[in-house]
Write a structure and sequence with these properties.
Blueprint (H helix, E strand, L loop, with lengths): L1 E3 L11 E3 L14 H5 L4 H12 L23 H7 L4 E4 L7 H8 L7 H24 L4 H5 L3 H26 L12 H6 L6 H18 L16 H14 L3 H13 L24 E5 L13 H6 L2 E4 L1 H5 L6 H6 L8 H4 L16 E5 H14 L3 H16 L23 H16 L5 H8 L2 H7 L15 H6 L11
């Protein structure tokens, strides 16, 4: 076996391995040198796309071996978006374990923080894998070379374009201007040349371009196939289009795009709130639009490693979060059992099962219909359709108060009453903010919501956190800047 290192100056590419046996694939799903540089097979093409999903997962150690210092043990979305917010704290009992998480929680982090390094590398590794896949799929002779059908090629292309847009969506929101890499990087010189931050407007434009391409390529079905329900669908693409419009305050576009999603007829609110997260209802419910399919005891590993971290005391609710729920709201206990120290949404259970299991099958939910409907409510409120916005908020509240509780009872009468009629935009916005917190707690949404609403500094300071204007963006990891001799510039204030 021979080894070829392809290291970039700023993306930290992993080694690509070549081997005489095509079936020998790197355990983390990387493409081999042989697959990239010789005549590809259908299997190689399909693997190139499938491996591009893995960076979305909560699976442990797909970027290294217990490399906590560099933030590479897990995907760090939960830390940057939940722990850093007013919803979550690092651990149930304060301790000195993983101080870089504390730095992100209290806004004392610097550009050398390992969690930021991990966030950068996870997303650019995903983009690298997608670009390898696109190299295959955009070859005009790929059907002749491999025998892949046009239908399958188009489906894989649609998935790849979506995944690239998804990774860039995270990067542009976390870091602002970032390098825009749309093809594989093969040499040090290419890497150095591309180590330039593109304006965030250009990143957003590329996100929308990739999503438009994906949408045209994917079939009009709820699932691509019954055997691979985890794959990107047209519904997931339309959802990210709506979210992109939301984050850019294109309110009429948000409404139109959510209407288009609803018009597919595939998605609706589940009768029971926890069906979105239960391992027993994965890919059987009506509400989840896109999730990562964690599986137990497969090779390469794809279990939900967060469940192991929960057993070590990580990821606990703040008192402020627990106190924010209205009386008898079933969503509180379904999110977290504070007495038992179970984070039910991550475990996928309400009895503590999967706690300590780094191969847990509990999925990571990215898009679900309740989230999307609240985007539409926000857009309706911003465009003056106050009754329409309130109707959606009440739809979410109705589902919550009619959900059977964790103890198997019906919430008492008077729980989560409907919001009354109002033409006060600010009042409705406050109701919306409250509803999103209760509905979407611990789903990696809170910090980005607070930032886009322009209230993050106010909320963080009210919770005793020293949030500064510079913290609207995270700093570019210092290690990436150093590797480019400063060609990759830093965000202001860091």
């Amino acid at each position: 076996m021979k080894y070829l290192k392809i290291a970039t100056l700023f993306l930290g590419f992993a080694a690509l391995t070549s081997c005489d046996d095509e079936l020998t694939i790197d355990p983390v799903g990387l493409q081999t040198d042989e697959q990239i540089n010789t005549t590809p097979t259908v299997r190689a093409v399909e693997n190139s796309v499938s491996s591009s999903y893995l960076m979305l997962s909560n699976t442990l150690n797909i970027m290294g071996n217990w490399d906590w210092i560099n933030g590479l043990v897990t995907n760090n979305d939960i830390i940057l978006q939940d722990v850093a917010s007013d919803d979550m704290q690092k651990t149930w009992i304060s301790n000195s374990d993983q101080p870089w998480m504390d730095e992100l929680d209290n806004f004392t982090y610097t550009s050398s923080n390992g969690g930021l390094n991990g966030a950068w590398k996870y997303n650019y590794e995903g983009i690298k894998r997608v670009n390898i896949a696109l190299d295959f799929l955009l070859n005009p002779n790929i059907e002749t070379i491999t025998g892949i059908s046009t239908e399958r090629k188009n489906q894989l292309l649609g998935e790849a374009y979506f995944l690239r847009s998804f990774y860039y969506f995270t990067l542009v929101n976390d870091f602002g201007d970032v390098p825009l890499i749309l093809e594989t990087v093969k040499t040090y010189q290419e890497a150095f040349d591309k180590a330039v931050r593109a304006p965030k407007a250009e990143i957003w434009k590329q996100i929308d371009t990739d999503l438009a391409l994906a949408k045209a390529l994917l079939p009009n079905e709820k699932y691509i196939t019954d055997s691979e329900k985890w794959r990107v669908t047209k519904g997931a693409v339309i959802t990210l289009q709506a979210k992109s419009a939301l984050y850019n305050q294109k309110w009429t576009e948000v409404i139109a795009t959510v209407n288009e999603l609803q018009g597919l007829g595939f998605y609706s609110l589940n009768a029971n709130y926890f069906d979105n997260f239960s391992t027993e209802t994965e890919f059987k419910d009506n509400e989840v639009i896109f999730s990562f399919d964690h599986q137990s005891y497969v090779i390469p590993a794809r279990g939900n490693g967060y469940c192991a971290l929960l057993n070590w005391g990580f990821f606990a609710p703040t008192t402020n979060f627990l106190n924010s729920f209205e009386p008898n709201d079933p969503r509180k206990a379904y999110t977290v059992n504070a007495d038992q120290k179970w984070v039910n949404k991550i475990l996928g259970t309400i009895n503590g099962d999967n706690r300590g299991n780094d191969q847990s099958p509990s999925n990571k939910v990215f898009f679900r219909m309740a989230d999307v409907l609240l985007w539409k409510a926000e857009a309706l409120n911003e465009t003056g359709d106050y009754s329409g916005a309130i109707a959606i908020i009440n739809q979410i509240r109705t589902r919550a108060r009619t959900t059977i509780t964790v103890s198997g009872t019906i919430p008492p009468a008077g729980t989560l009453p409907n919001r009354p009629s109002s033409s006060d935009k600010n009042t409705i916005k406050d109701w919306l903010i409250s509803e999103r917190r209760a509905e979407l707690g611990f789903e990696n949404q809170r910090m980005m919501d607070l930032k886009r609403w322009g209230i993050v500094k106010e909320v963080m300071k009210a919770n005793g956190k020293n949030f500064q204007d510079k913290n609207m963006l995270y700093p570019i990891p210092q290690s990436e800047i150093d590797k480019t001799a400063g060609k990759l510039t830093q965000n202001p204030g860091y």
